[in-house]
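Re: beginner question about structure tokens

> Can someone show what the tokenized structure looks like for a real chain? I only ever see the sequence side.

Sure, here's an example I had lying around. Input first:
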Amino acid sequence: MNQNEIKKSLSKLPLGDIKYFESIGSTNDEALAWAANDAPDLSIVIADEQTAGRGRLNRKWFTPKGTALAFSLILRPTAEERPYLTRTVGLAALAVAESLRTRGLIAQIKWPNDVLIAGHKVCGILIESVWSGEDVDCVVIGIGVNVLKGSVPPAESLLFPAISFEEKLGYSPEMLEILHDILAVLIELRSRMTSDEFIQQWENLLAFRGELVQIESGDTPAVIGHVIGLESDGSLQLRNDHGESVTVRFGDVRLRPLA
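And the corresponding structure tokens:
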């Protein structure tokens, strides 16, 4: 993968600018700095290797050279999109899930920010924002996808089981084809992000729906309940042991199944 190959592969998509790095600390850090300096909408930072990649809760994201997709997309929200920015993580997750479906793989979305195949994590998403006063100026969508087997960290270092495209497909897929498909779906879905249909599509792919899960958040007591669905802003709905509906908002939360 190199700059020319990437530009050729993505040439038919309405992207902004493209930055490619053979190795970088974090694509999100680069994208945040670029976004603060007037990067165009739908500009993208791509790296073949991340040495300081990170996910939510300051966890490290494993991106060894030549084995995974690591990229960050800059969105400059329109006036219509601004009230719906909490749905951005769903936009990214659905784009990845759809790219899996076109390859015959069934994907689910583990709220709030992971994509699963057969109960194993294949993709992680990190959403960060650049602010201008009290308003969000732009949103950076960081996406890491385990493409080849070598992208999956050792089992003993994982908090949740992981898998790669290659392991499920039985062959080594083309990295740039996957990147193109994810971006194409994301751009198409963006036009529907403000609709009720979008939330329904996201909800239909929720992992552990109807199952008992535990939500952990910092030092606060864990919340336990059965997954019902999503609120209109993408927050998670649970039903507790008393039959009451409980809403879990986005934040430093971690979901674990209790089956």
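Each token stands for a local structural state, so reading them left to right follows the chain. Helices lie at 3-9, 27-35, 88-101, 165-169, 175-190, 196-204.
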